C-alpha cells in the first residue's frame, strides 16, 4: 500500500518505519525539519521518502494522522483535499499539557476529525498502544500469540486496509465497531497510557482480548 504519514514524531516515525519495513511505500511528512524527515526515510529503508503533507496525501491509499490534537487543523490544511481517502488516525483529542481529553462521552476525536474531512473515510487505530512498544511487537510478529489492537470505523473497505496495516506490524486487529466507538476507545487509550507508564521502566503493558464462546459452553454444560 502507499501510506502517507502526516506527523512524523513518536508515533508517525515509528509506524512509518515499520510500514516501510513491512513492504509498504511510505512518505514521511510534517516535522519541523526537512532534514529529520529525510533521515527518517533513509533509516527506514525500503520504499520510504520524505515529502510535504500534500505529497504524502496525494497518491496514498491510506493516510496516517499522527499529530498532537492542537496541530490537526494545520496539518489538514497543508495536506489539501482528502476526499476519497482513507484516513487512519492515532491522534487523541488531548489538551495542551496532555493531561485530559478535550472531546469525550458524547463524541470523540475521531468523529470530530471525520467532520473536518467530510469526503474522506476515518478509521481510528493505533492510539491504544504506547509508541515505545511498536518495534518490539513488530520484531515478535511471528509469535503465535499477538497483542490485540482495537480499531473502529464506519466503512468496511477502509477498515480492511487498517486491519491489514495492524496485522503487518505484529498486532491482532480487533474490530471494535463503528467510528462512534472511538468515544470508548479514546478514554481506554488514556487508561492504557496511565497503566503503561505507572512503573519506573516505561511501558510494560500488553492487552489481549479473548472470546469465551459462552453460548457454546452453556449448551455443553
Ligand atoms: N506517543 C505515543 O505513545 C502515543 C500513543 C497513542 C496515541 N498518541 C497520539 O498520537 C498523536 C501523535 O503523538 P506523538 O507522540 O507521535 O507526537 P509527537 O512526537 O509530538 O509528533 C508530532 C509530529 O508533529 C510535528 N509538529 C509539531 N508541531 C509542528 C509544527 N509547528 N510544524 C510542523 N510539524 C510539527 C512534530 O515535529 P518534530 O518531529 O519536529 O517535533 C512531530 O513530527 C497524538 O495525538 C497523541 O495523542 C501518541
Q: How does the SSE layout of this entry go?
A:
Elements: E1 2-6, H1 10-21, E2 25-29, H2 34-44, E3 48-50, H3 53-58, E4 62-65, H4 72-79, E5 86-89, H5 109-116, E6 121-124, H6 134-139, E7 148-153, H7 156-168, E8 172-175, H8 182-196, H9 214-220
Parallel strand pairs: 1-2, 1-4, 2-3, 4-5, 5-6, 7-8
Antiparallel strand pairs: 6-7
Helix pairs in contact: 1-2
Bound molecules: NADP nicotinamide-adenine-dinucleotide phosphate.
The site of NADP nicotinamide-adenine-dinucleotide phosphate has 24 residues, from helix 1.
Write out key terms for the chains shown.
alpha/beta; binds NADP nicotinamide-adenine-dinucleotide phosphate; 9 helices; 221 residues; 8-stranded mixed sheet
In whole angstroms, the N-to-C terminal distance is 47 Å
- Secondary structural class: alpha/beta
Total number of helices:
9
Radius of gyration: 17 Å
Give the % helix.
Answer: 25-40%
Could you characterize the architecture of this molecule?
The mean pLDDT is 94. An eight-stranded mixed sheet has the order 3-2-1-4-5-6-7-8, sandwiched between helices. With 221 residues, it is α/β, with parallel strands linked by helices. Helix 1 (10-21) packs parallel to helix 2 (34-44). Helix 5 links the parallel strand 5 (86-89) and strand 6. The protein is built from nine helices and eight strands. The longest helix has 15 residues, at 182-196. It has helices at 10-21, 34-44, 53-58, 72-79, 109-116, 134-139, 156-168, 182-196, 214-220; strands spanning 2-6, 25-29, 48-50, 62-65, 86-89, 121-124, 148-153, 172-175. It is globular, with a radius of gyration of 17 Å. The structure holds NADP nicotinamide-adenine-dinucleotide phosphate (NAP).
